[in-house]
């Protein structure tokens, strides 16, 4: 895409009904970790352990969105962003993960929802963005089949208290990431490891996704119900059969394992044999109970991965060839900047005939931003967003179904194991003073969204 074509990028090209938004997550922005009766989450506990988070960072205060929510929502309005995706903290609503309900938590989210609507910003709620109540982790967390009942009860509380005003819902965020990193590799909360933990968590999260969606359908009139998946465009390092097969296995794990069962297709066991071990945990009627007819599917795409065969990697026989090794342009996260990945991802998921609507619910980049003379010139992030929007527009012009785009993220935040090292925000946060500074990328997005015919 040359500079002249890029300069012609216009909001109107995407259509009047195209959804524009920005995404956040409760644990990453809220702070106020024990305020007003909130219980501990698995991430509160995980971040307190030495050596788990870069620089020993924690999220006790994070961006203090708990107290700055009005200020930040006003910034969303200033940036002309009409849709705001945020998550609800399960332990803020139900401190032990189960009843009783913490009324202060309900009151807090009611205030956020009401103020968003007052500002003419549509709330998009994610029910679960990784912050499982620690009290439930002590009972096995997602490895315990009871987690389906726990999550169902929590979903019902949210639906009953917020469903009169919130119509756009996402059930669970990126299940492949939090189960893989948290229950197999142990590098994210709760820090469990091993195949058994992973497979149990995978199956129970899949069941919970459908169960939560059914509860929303029952309790929220006119609900627009979706759930989100992290998606990565996968390519083999070479065309040698062993690399091609390795890429296929990685693609199955990262892109197919969670979405196919909710579409009624079952787990893709034939293309990743280790998934056959799920049979140990699948009970009668589970395959029917995993499926749900979602109104939309949220896809979260940032990069592509190059894969080669590796006999040293158990279960999957493959390894990723890092962006650093390939000497390609990458972000602070070490992710290759490769905008066509978004086009390929949209095309790929359009092949599933029973996906009604696709929304890109996260896309963005982390770069080392600095405030200079009161301004943040994050030119690379601006270019990243523009280049990815070009690919999205190309997908639309080629006839593929894609109906929205949410930037990750509104503000710099606590980026899980990376701590505060990786800044993704359209708005810079000074984590010592909580001063907000809109970055050049935020100003560009504001002006882009202000365009009219």
UniProtKB/TrEMBL annotation:
<feature type="active site" description="Nucleophile">
    <location>
        <position position="362"/>
    </location>
</feature>
<dbReference type="InterPro" id="IPR001360">
    <property type="entry name" value="Glyco_hydro_1"/>
</dbReference>
<feature type="binding site">
    <location>
        <position position="173"/>
    </location>
    <ligand>
        <name>substrate</name>
    </ligand>
</feature>
<keyword id="KW-0624">Polysaccharide degradation</keyword>
<feature type="active site" description="Proton donor">
    <location>
        <position position="174"/>
    </location>
</feature>
<feature type="binding site">
    <location>
        <position position="129"/>
    </location>
    <ligand>
        <name>substrate</name>
    </ligand>
</feature>
<feature type="binding site">
    <location>
        <position position="302"/>
    </location>
    <ligand>
        <name>substrate</name>
    </ligand>
</feature>
<dbReference type="InterPro" id="IPR017736">
    <property type="entry name" value="Glyco_hydro_1_beta-glucosidase"/>
</dbReference>
<keyword id="KW-0119">Carbohydrate metabolism</keyword>
<dbReference type="GO" id="GO:0005829">
    <property type="term" value="C:cytosol"/>
</dbReference>
<comment type="similarity">
    <text>Belongs to the glycosyl hydrolase 1 family.</text>
</comment>
<dbReference type="InterPro" id="IPR033132">
    <property type="entry name" value="GH_1_N_CS"/>
</dbReference>
<dbReference type="InterPro" id="IPR017853">
    <property type="entry name" value="GH"/>
</dbReference>
<keyword id="KW-0326">Glycosidase</keyword>
<keyword id="KW-0378">Hydrolase</keyword>
<dbReference type="GO" id="GO:0008422">
    <property type="term" value="F:beta-glucosidase activity"/>
</dbReference>
<dbReference type="GO" id="GO:0030245">
    <property type="term" value="P:cellulose catabolic process"/>
</dbReference>
<feature type="binding site">
    <location>
        <position position="408"/>
    </location>
    <ligand>
        <name>substrate</name>
    </ligand>
</feature>
<keyword id="KW-0136">Cellulose degradation</keyword>
<dbReference type="Pfam" id="PF00232">
    <property type="entry name" value="Glyco_hydro_1"/>
</dbReference>
<dbReference type="InterPro" id="IPR018120">
    <property type="entry name" value="Glyco_hydro_1_AS"/>
</dbReference>
<protein>
    <recommendedName>
        <fullName>Beta-glucosidase</fullName>
        <ecNumber>3.2.1.21</ecNumber>
    </recommendedName>
</protein>
<feature type="binding site">
    <location>
        <position position="28"/>
    </location>
    <ligand>
        <name>substrate</name>
    </ligand>
</feature>
<feature type="binding site">
    <location>
        <begin position="415"/>
        <end position="416"/>
    </location>
    <ligand>
        <name>substrate</name>
    </ligand>
</feature>
């Amino acid at each position: 895409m040359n500079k002249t074509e890029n300069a012609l990028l216009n909001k109107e090209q995407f259509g009047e009904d195209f959804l524009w938004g920005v995404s956040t997550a409760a644990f990453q922005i809220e702070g106020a970790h024990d305020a007003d009766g909130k219980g501990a989450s698995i991430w509160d506990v995980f971040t307190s352990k030495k050596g788990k988070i870069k620089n020993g960072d924690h999220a006790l205060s994070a961006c203090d969105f708990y107290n700055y929510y009005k200020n930040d929502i006003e910034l969303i309005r200033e940036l002309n962003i009409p849709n705001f995706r945020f998550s609800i903290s399960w332990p803020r609503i139900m401190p032990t993960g189960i009843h009783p309900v913490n009324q202060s938590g309900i009151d807090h989210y009611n205030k956020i929802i009401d103020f968003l609507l007052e500002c003419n910003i549509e709330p998009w709620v994610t029910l679960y963005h990784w912050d499982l109540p620690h009290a439930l982790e002590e009972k096995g967390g997602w490895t315990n089949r009871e987690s389906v009942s726990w999550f169902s009860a929590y979903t019902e509380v949210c639906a009953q208290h917020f469903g009169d005003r919130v119509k756009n819902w996402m059930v669970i965020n990126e299940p492949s990431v939090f189960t893989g990193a948290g229950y197999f590799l142990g590098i994210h909360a709760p820090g469990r490891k091993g195949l058994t933990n992973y497979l149990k968590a995978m199956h129970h999260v899949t069941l919970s996704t459908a169960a939560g969606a059914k509860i929303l359908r029952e309790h929220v009139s006119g609900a627009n119900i979706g759930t989100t998946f992290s998606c990565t465009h996968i390519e083999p390092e070479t065309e040698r059969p062993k690399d091609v097969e390795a890429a296929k296995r990685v693609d199955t794990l990262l892109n197919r394992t969670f979405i196919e069962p909710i579409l009624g297709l079952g787990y893709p066991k034939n293309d990743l044999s280790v998934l056959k071990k799920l049979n140990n945990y699948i009970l009668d009627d589970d395959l029917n109970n995993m499926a749900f007819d979602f109104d939309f599917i949220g896809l979260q795409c940032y990069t592509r991965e190059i894969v080669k065969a590796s006999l040293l990697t158990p279960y999957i026989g493959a390894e990723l060839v890092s962006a650093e090794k390939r000497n390609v342009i990458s972000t602070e996260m070490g992710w290759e900047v490769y905008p066509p990945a978004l086009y390929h991802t949209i095309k790929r998921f359009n092949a599933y005939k029973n996906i009604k609507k696709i929304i890109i619910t996260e896309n963005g980049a982390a770069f080392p931003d600095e405030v200079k003379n009161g301004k943040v010139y994050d030119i690379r992030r601006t270019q990243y967003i523009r280049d990815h929007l070009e690919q999205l527009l190309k997908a639309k012009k080629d006839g593929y179904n894609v109906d929205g785009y949410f930037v990750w993220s509104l503000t710099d935040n606590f980026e899980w194991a990376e701590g505060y090292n990786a800044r993704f925000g359209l708005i810079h946060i000074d984590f010592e003073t909580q001063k907000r500074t809109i970055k050049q990328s935020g100003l560009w997005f504001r002006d882009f969204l202000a365009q009219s015919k």
